[in-house]
Amino acid sequence: MTSQRHNVPAWFIVVIVVMMLPLLSWPMIVTGMLDGMSRDEGRSALVLIFPVYALLSGWLAYRSYARRPEISWTLLGVLLLAYAAVAFLTFNNPQP
């Protein structure tokens, strides 16, 4: 059984890595969120499991680029929108 090599250009791998860079600050963001936020379980759960979604999106974009580059770009675009949504959930904390 031979390993099939994906024909993914190096520049696209760099784009995926750049899209994953915000995850490096994730522990600090979650710590600040949990300290300052009222215990809204739904919001907390979404923010806590977001890194799994982000990593899965990056991996799927990498895997699908060889056959369907438009799907890869769509996945990364949705990931960018998801980063904006999670930032809104994290930093827009209305006081009750």
Outline the structure in words:
Helix content is 72%, strand content 0%. It has 96 residues and is mainly alpha-helical. Helix 2 packs antiparallel against helix 3. The longest helix is centred in the middle third of the chain and has 24 residues. The chain is elongated, with a radius of gyration of 16 Å.
Labels describing this entry:
96 residues, 4 helices
Q: Give the number of helices.
A: 4
**Helix/strand structural class:** mainly alpha
Please count the beta strands (DSSP E, at least 2 residues each): 0
> What amount of the residues lies in strands?
under 5%
What profile does the largest beta sheet have?
none
First-residue to last-residue Cα separation: 60 Å
Assign a percent range to the helix content. over 70%
Unreliable residue runs: none
List the quaternary state of the chains.
single chain
Rg of Cα set: 16 Å
Overall body shape: elongated
String of helices and strands = HHHH
Write down the overall mean pLDDT.
Answer: 82
Summarize the structure.
This protein has 96 residues and is mainly α. It has helices at 10-20, 26-36, 41-64, 69-91.
Topology:
Elements (H helix, E strand, L loop, with lengths): L9 H11 L5 H11 L4 H24 L4 H23 L5
